[in-house]
Design brief:
By secondary structure, this protein is of the alpha/beta class. It has two domains: 280 residues, no CATH class; 65 residues, no CATH class. The chain is 25% helix and 37% strand. A hairpin with a 2-residue loop joins β2 and β3.
């Protein structure tokens, strides 16, 4: 058998053990969904370079490791002090903390109860409010073609649940912090998030993924967002995993009439990262935005796949992804805009820009338009380049040193995405993190003599 096949059997065997541990819970409707998902995973197996969607991302490093599902809650020594670097000082927010995929109540901060608003862990929500969870959980993220989504669904246990009833406005942001620990055996952490914003509701959710400095693990997360008519949803995903971690995510968004949806994906670390985003604009008058920034170095790899699906007329979508690659890092951007025949008067814009700080860095970018309507305004583009020599010369002619000139230009490049973040505390922290990363890159370039 191939290595990929061996690893598939590893997870099928782990599922059998997981199923036996459920006892009576193995007869629930949710577990029927799990069984269907593991069958899909068994049929699909892990992707290879022969799969067009994974052509430039080799998952062999994942299939070489026996990642063990963490099936029981265990803080594994984590304290609030360990989490401080991944929180936002001064931000008044509701914060749910998950350690190795399981809710940690003692490390979380919940707001005062509010009628019509649910912010809780998935286990509690399924037990106390199944009528709100079951119509949506595992119904929007498809297991048919995405093997990692199928794997997450097969082992779904815990995660976050956010629900706003009609007309509810939650002023406080919700911070969902997923922290992975260092374990004797590399861990498989599979968080699940379900966000339902009913008609005329408003909510802001920040997802942070982080891990212990030397921890080796695989985060395989799925987020489903359902936005009802005229809802306003701001969504942020911040990836700060350990340098030896693997991160795979699937974000599925279903939007109804007149929804305003904004999502920003920031990737700052991790050995291999694959982010998949699929937004469905299924109502008229929707305004939907996807922003992204990825900073990779060394031999890190990041892959961003997006699909914006226009199903109904009179909608607008905006996509703006930027990447900064250093060292021998590699990147992939594949952004598809699909305009169905019914989606007349669509206005869609997509742009991917990449800055290579090293001659050994590499990026494969493929923006795509697939249009079946005849009354649309759609545009896309991609750029790959290095620092503008003329811009550096201009700044140096104004008395600014070469290293500072390069730093200013690179920071401005990244800042075009960071400045779009609407939460002050989040934007300020990310700006500091980006600045530190760019200082590190400047030091490397200076030592290598590439700044002169």
């Amino acid at each position: 058998m191939t290595q990929s096949t061996d690893k598939k059997e590893w997870y099928l065997s782990n599922f059998e053990s997981f199923e036996q541990s459920l006892n009576g819970a193995s007869t629930t409707p949710l577990h029927q969904v799990r069984r269907s998902a593991i069958e899909q995973f068994g049929s699909l197996g892990f992707p290879t370079s022969r799969d067009e969607e994974w052509r430039y991302t080799n998952v062999a490093p994942i299939t070489r490791t026996d990642f063990t599902p963490v099936l029981e809650p265990d803080l594994n020594g984590v304290t609030s002090e360990d989490l401080e670097p991944f929180t936002f000082p001064g931000l008044d927010c509701v914060q749910l903390v998950f350690v190795d995929g399981h809710y940690a109540a003692e490390l979380s901060t919940l707001g005062a109860p509010s009628a019509g608003v649910a912010v809780t862990d998935l286990v509690t929500a399924l037990a106390e409010q199944p009528e709100l969870v079951e119509p949506h959980l595992c119904h929007h993220a498809s297991c048919d073609v995405e093997p990692f989504t199928a794997l997450n669904t097969a082992f779904v246990q815990d995660g976050a649940f956010v629900h706003l009833s009609r007309g509810k406005i939650l002023e406080q942001p919700i911070h969902l912090l997923f922290f992975a620990t260092e374990r004797e055996k590399p861990a498989l952490v599979q968080p699940r998030i379900l966000i339902v914003a009913e008609e005329n509701s408003q909510v802001t959710v920040v997802e942070t993924y982080a891990g212990a400095t030397s921890a080796r693990y695989l985060t395989n997360g799925v987020t489903e967002i359902v936005a009802g008519q005229s809802a306003v949803v701001d969504h942020y995903r911040i990836q700060r995993e350990s340098d030896d971690a693997f991160h795979v995510s699937d974000l599925r968004v279903r939007q109804s009439r007149d929804v305003q949806f904004r999502s920003t994906c920031i990737t700052l670390s991790g050995r291999l990262t694959r982010n998949h985003v699929h937004t469905a604009l299924d109502g008229e008058g929707i305004d939907s935005t996807l922003n992204g920034l990825y900073l990779v170095e060394g031999e890190q790899h990041v892959d961003n796949h997006t699909l914006i699906e226009h199903l109904q007329p009179h909608c607008a979508s905006h996509e703006f992804y930027k990447g900064i690659l250093d060292g021998k890092s590699t990147g992939v951007f594949r952004g598809q805009i699909l305009v169905h025949q019914a989606a007349q008067q669509t206005d869609a814009y997509q742009q991917n820009q990449n800055l290579l700080l090293s001659e050994e860095a590499d990026i494969n970018t493929k923006p795509q338009l697939e249009i079946y309507a005849d009354d649309v305004k759609c545009s896309h583009g991609a750029t790959i380049g290095q620092l503008d020599a003329e811009a550096v010369f201009y700044l140096r002619s104004r008395g600014i040193g070469v290293e500072e000139s390069a730093r200013l230009l690179t920071h401005a490049f990244a800042g075009a995405v960071v400045e779009r973040i609407r939460i002050d505390a989040v934007r300020e922290q990310l700006d500091q993190l980006v600045t530190r990363r760019l200082l590190k890159a400047d030091d490397r370039l200076a030592k290598a003599g590439q700044l002169s």
